[in-house]
Specification:
Keywords: Calcium, Hydrolase, Metal-binding, Signal. Belongs to the sulfatase family. GO terms for molecular function: hydrolase activity; metal ion binding. This protein is an alpha+beta fold. The chain has two domains: about 450 residues, Alkaline Phosphatase, subunit A (3-Layer(aba) Sandwich), CATH 3.40.720; about 180 residues, Jelly Rolls (Sandwich), CATH 2.60.120.200. It is about 25% helix and about 20% strand. A hairpin with a 6-residue loop joins strand 29 and strand 30. The longest helix has about 35 residues. The radius of gyration is 29 Å and the shape is globular. The chain starts with 7 loop residues before the first helix and ends with a helix.
Length: about 850
């Protein structure tokens, strides 16, 4: 048959279609295409990531029709590798959930434990960023530069907040081995100075160190669950709450994760996934929906108070086998009030705080349950390894002795009274508050242990409940495991389950060894000897060392709820008094046996020093609030003038990530604006919102400058007349009265060089506006600094030619400068 030149392409095209259909048919039938064919897969060695490119294995002639193609194979994990759902809730004490003896219903955690295993001696670092860094990398928190939360980073190898390229996270390892990796929720491991939409994004969840394909969540300690102004999709700020009253991030995040599970199941059903699911619950602010508050209130769980609650929990724990029969309930501390000493008003307030918190935990667990059920509905639960870690540290004491209507009060050294808090009683847990419960509830939710979050010396700060299930592999359903383990052991467990080796090199950088040990050896044998014989703990100078059934512990000199800017009372290295516990005989650290065993204590102290040297724990630093203000890296070092044309939205972390920091200094803000015929209103410049912050805006055409001082006071400067059409120069000038944190001063508002208002403000904010709201020009996001004046987004309806901010030098006393910069600590 004669074939013309014109029909050749069609013939080749038809042949290509036939070949493609054949390959697709083979794949659809479950057959693996041969090496080199389109759609062929391979499992890589995994020790060197990425795997070196394979040589071309086809044949090349001058004519394609006489050549043989060969495609690079798609990388897939080893056959049978499980999906992974890694869950970490926030600030949940060991005994808060029902799964570990608590009275708060957590049926999802119950389900994982009942279908898998409960781990009753699992430990964290006592604080959030450090625990999460250790969790994701499989290395101790100081080893990955996160000895403290990233907001408090200092310039030492164990504390600078930057996870390095030689300690990449599990997301990058699994992704390069063929997993889909996604992260939902809290990211408190991105350094503040790169946490704006300008990046750089190397240290973000989707960067090459953490390595997740997809991210949906918030950057920072916490966020409002109603109006999360620090929410991102990958690296782009988003505001899905605008125009949706009742929207809540706890539910929205579950929706996002479920959407990704369903998408993968339809688009790439054979590809294993790893989901890191880290909701804001139950870190402050406690923001459950009204439905959940009503449910919990109807149960009357806390009417008898925190002391009776401890007794109830302890009895539950013995009944469940969570603690042994010979375990002792540790003593109630003298500096926390007993329930029967409280007034009726105090009890009313504290019960409200507990109900809202419990509702938040139950709500969070319910939404996690929806994610688990989505995996089940997709038919993938049997081959999914689920690790549910109940809290990244012990229950939080950061609510102080009376609780907090707003977390930002204590950030600025304000300890609200019961009377202050009662003003917000009806709104507790709604978007009008940023609340936290009183300290004694934290002690109760760490039953039977001593201490709380932030305290690394005792299990109340470091012991968290954990449950693990993998139906295809873990068969001892409902079993309890008592081997001593630490959060750094999770990554090795995942890698062993997936059949993936620990990498030697990733992206051209040699990797430091993973420091955890796999827990897989516990799956089949409840009595298997533990494989973690030594583990150190340190946070804010409090510290401990576990070794072969003993714990030496140095508790804090100042309780974590006594937050202040005062200097620590003693030498951090030598001023702490050590205790000793034989935890094989004394499960709960109830009996200090240091006096009877001085030699053992000395040996344990020496072991701690050796471990601290090895893992970059030194220098010890017991400062808390001052480290938030300590100097940090910046892409605008020494900058004292900022200029904007607007609009600009969602710039976080003033003074660090690119926005001007107005605190503890004099400053001038100048706005050059054009007012159209008919007048204008709207936001010129703002940072903060409902809970604290400032705004410079026009309302009813009148120039206005407002400071919101932690909802306790609003100070306002305002012109008497609306601005006429045309060009105007608006100036707000603040003169701080004297050196010192939070000092007052005098503000002056000018229009076209004429003073229109001047007044004194006796106090200002000493430490920070907060991370939940962001800096904006020409519009406001999140919430309003004064909702009686305007509602977000409040865009400026005129034209902003330029907004210029000029900052004076920081005005601190010599003692404050020394405290913030850590001069005393660095000389130790």
């Amino acid at each position: 048959m004669h074939v013309t030149r014109q029909t050749l392409p069609a013939t080749a095209f038809t042949l290509a279609l036939i070949l493609t259909a054949t390959v697709a048919s083979a794949q659809g039938a479950g057959e693996t295409p041969p090496a080199g064919a389109a759609g062929a897969t391979t499992t890589i060695d995994g020790r060197y990531l990425p795997a070196p490119p394979r040589p071309f294995r086809g044949e090349i002639d001058t004519n394609a029709m006489q050549s043989t193609p060969s495609w690079p194979e798609l990388i897939t994990p080893p056959r049978g590798a499980p999906n992974v759902l890694l869950i970490m809730t926030d600030d949940v004490g060991f005994s808060a959930p029902s799964t570990f003896g608590g009275v708060i219903p957590t049926p999802t955690l119950d389900r994982i434990a009942d279908e898998g295993l409960r781990y009753t001696r699992f430990h964290t670092t006592a604080l959030c960023s450090p625990t999460r860094a250790a969790l994701l990398t499989g290395r101790n928190h100081h080893s990955v530069a996160t000895g403290v939360v990233v907001d408090q980073a200092t310039g030492f190898p164990g504390y600078d907040g930057v996870i390095k390229r030689d300690t990449v996270a599990v997301g990058e390892i699994l992704k390069q081995n063929g997993y889909d990796t996604s992260w939902f929720g809290k990211d408190h491991n991105t350094p503040t100075w790169v946490a704006s939409q300008a990046g750089p994004f190397t240290d973000w969840p989707t960067g090459p160190i953490k390595g997740f394909d997809y991210y949906y969540g918030f950057i920072g300690d916490d966020t409002s669950q109603w109006q999360p102004n620090n929410l991102f999709r990958n690296t782009t700020p988003i505001e899905p709450y605008l125009g949706h009253p009742g929207w809540n991030l706890i539910t929205a995040m579950a929706d996002e994760a479920i959407g990704r599970i369903n998408m993968l199941n339809e688009v790439q059903p054979e590809r294993p996934f790893m989901i890191y699911y880290a909701p804001g619950g139950t870190h402050a602010p406690h923001h459950p929906t009204r439905e959940w508050v009503d449910r919990i209130e109807a149960m009357h769980l806390f009417d008898e108070g925190w002391n009776k609650l401890r007794d109830t929990i302890f009895a539950n724990q013995k009944k469940l086998g969570i603690v042994p029969e010979n375990a002792e309930l540790t003593a109630w501390p003298d500096d926390l009030p007993k329930w029967d000493t409280l007034s009726d008003e105090q009890k009313k307030l504290y019960i409200r705080q507990a109900d809202v918190y419990a509702a938040y935990l139950a709500y969070t667990d319910h939404e996690i349950g929806r994610v688990v059920q989505a995996i089940d509905d997709a038919g993938k639960l049997d081959n999914t390894l689920i690790i549910y870690i109940s809290g990244d540290n012990g229950a939080s004491p950061e609510g102080t002795l009376n609780g907090l209507y707003s977390e930002f009060a204590i950030l600025n050294g304000i300890h609200p009274s019961v009377e202050d808090n009662m003003k917000f009683y009806d709104a507790w847990g709604t978007d009008q508050t940023y609340p936290h419960y009183a300290v004694p509830w934290a002690w109760a939710w760490d039953t039977p242990y001593q201490w709380t979050k932030e305290v690394a010396s005792h299990f109340g700060g470091t012991r968290n409940g954990m449950a693990m299930m993998w139906p295809d592999r873990i068969k001892d359903k409902g079993g309890i495991r008592t081997q001593f383990h630490h959060v750094i052991d999770v990554v090795p467990t995942i890698l062993e389950a997936a059949g993936i080796p620990e990498p030697v090199s990733v992206n051209g950088v040699a990797q430091r060894p993973i420091e955890g040990v796999s827990m897989a050896y516990t799956w089949d044998d409840a009595n298997a000897p533990g494989r973690r014989d030594t583990q150190y703990f340190e946070m804010f100078g409090s510290r401990a060392i576990y070794h072969d059934g003993w714990v030496a512990a140095a508790p804090p000199l100042v309780a974590p709820w006594d937050l202040s800017l005062a200097p620590p009372p003693a030498d951090v290295m030598n001023g702490f008094k050590w205790q000793l516990y034989d935890i094989e005989a004394d499960w709960s650290q109830a009996k200090d046996v240091a006096a009877e065993n001085p030699d053992k204590l000395r040996d344990m102290q020496q072991l701690f020093t050796m471990q601290a040297e090895k893992y970059r724990v030194f220098p010890l630093d017991d400062r808390t609030l001052p480290r938030f203000m300590a100097p940090k890296p910046s892409y605008t070092p020494g900058r004292n003038e900022f200029s904007y044309a607007g609009p600009l939205m969602n710039v976080p972390f003033p003074g660090v990530a690119g926005a001007p920091d107005l605190l503890n200094k004099s400053y001038t803000i100048t706005a050059e604006v054009e007012i159209p015929a008919g007048g204008a209103e709207g936001m010129l410049m703002t940072d903060g919102g409902r809970f604290s912050g400032y705004g410079f805006y026009l309302v009813g055409g009148k120039p206005t400058f407002t400071w919101n001082l932690i909802q306790l006071e609003t100070v306002k400067w305002q012109g008497k007349e609306a601005l006429s059409p045309g060009h105007h120069t608006l100036v707000f000038d603040w003169k701080q009265s004297a050196p010192g944190l939070g000092k007052g001063g005098t503000g002056t508002l000018k229009v076209d060089d004429a003073v229109v208002d001047t007044r004194e403000m006796p106090k200002s904010l000493p430490v920070g506006i907060g991370w939940v709201e962001t800096f904006n020009v020409g519009v406001d996001t999140g919430t309003s600094v004064d909702e009686s004046d305007y509602k977000v987004p409040f865009p400026f309806t005129g034209t902003i030619d330029r907004v210029t901010v000029k900052l004076g030098p920081e005005q601190l006393t010599a003692a404050e400068q020394e405290m913030i910069r850590g001069a005393r600590q660095t000389s130790n």
